Amino acid sequence: MGVFNLALLGKQAWRLMQHQKSLLGKVMVAKYFKHSAFLESSLGFAGSYSWTSIWSSKPLFQEGLIWRVGKGDQINIWDDAWVADELGSKIVSKKIANVEKVKDLIDLDSGEWKHDFISENFCDRDVKCILSIPLSMRLPCDEQIWAFSKDGRYSVKIAYFLGKSCNLDNFHKAWVIIWGLNVTPKIRRFLWRVGIGTLPVREYLVYSHMSTDKVCPCCSTEAETMRHAFLDCPTVKDLWTEVGCEKLIWSAGITFADFLVEWKERFSSIIHVGAILLWKIWNRRNDIVFNSVEVSHCTVIERTKALSTDIAAYAEKIYGGIGALLFPLVLRYGNRLLMMLLR
Fold first, then answer.
1. Which pTM does this prediction carry?
2. What is the C-alpha to C-alpha distance for residues 131 and 105, in angstroms, rounded to an integer?
3. For a 10 Å CB count at each end of the chain, is N or C smaller?
4. pLDDT at 118 > cutoff 70
């Protein structure tokens, strides 16, 4: 929740930076950063609750900011974020005397990079990054944009996942995989909650101030985290092997979304069985919590295999040989989609 709040506050920081002539912008500028830009402003003393809150979002906000090169007169070559690759958004080469602004690397007459100068004074990584940036003949003003969105505007959603240190590409792939699984809609919704970390395990309930008891209701030995509930609890460890899904156990420190992508790439033939097993483990846990009934391992295994077989048989019977492809889509969008596809 703390990261989400910072992501929301980052939206206000973006507005302050982009719309300083708005009423909010004029008030904040006059009171808190009259002689500097927002990103260079200090917290100061006796600031309002609004200002301290917005200011606290700066570290997360700055993670996604990058300069779009125009004239290059506002961008510091060595300190600002203006290049982009897997190593980061700043130049790593040694500083060059009397060369401070990006405009020093641009031939203003032709509107092109100074290829020879750049190749001689920057490392190979920096040369590749700099020369890959397109320049406009009009040489517009430099502009700060949000690097992780298509339109360059700040995104609360992306900032949240950035704050959670998620792999954004894998996160989006994971949702495509979940909504395309050959399982029932309630299992897909369940997997979605597992992926975003909002399943009401004991640790999450304590974090949300809804409970004070972290202990796992199944083993009563350790705190019930998401990973413990599905993988590490002594009462469920053997289930993965007995169902034939031991390859699907993900390593500690890896998010469920990241590993779900790996599931799809390496173990696509059993991924739906693993999804059903997760669902049945959760059902077993809830039977203990709410009904004081402990379902045996054999029963969990039988129910997992039976549901997996039933879903596959239903898809084959109703939709024929293309059932594996169409069944997830029909479950999501209804039979109208099927009729459209079969026309």
1. 0.55
2. 10
3. C
4. yes
What are phi and psi for residue 40, nearest 5 degrees?
-100, 0
Domain that holds residue 202: 168-341
CB atoms within 10 A of CB 148: 18
Q: What is the pLDDT of residues 140-175, one digit of tens each?
A: 999 988 887 878 888 887 787 777 655 656 666 777
The stretches of 57-167 forming alpha helices (DSSP H) are 58-63, 115-121, 124-131, 156-163
Helices (H), the chain: 2-18, 23-32, 49-56, 58-63, 115-121, 124-131, 156-163, 168-180, 185-196, 202-207, 226-227, 237-243, 256-266, 271-291, 297-319, 323-333, 335-341
195 and 241 together in one domain? yes
* Same domain membership, residue 288 and residue 298: yes
What are all long-range contacts of 315-321, with beta carbons under 8 Å and residues at least 24 apart? 315/182
| Listed residue (31, 20, 90, 22) closest to 62, CA to CA | 90
335 and 290 fall within a common domain: yes
| DSSP secondary structure letter of residue 250 | P
How far apart, in whole angstroms, are the C-alpha atoms of residue 226 and residue 223?
10
Q: What angle do CA 271, 258, 152 make, to 5 degrees?
A: 130
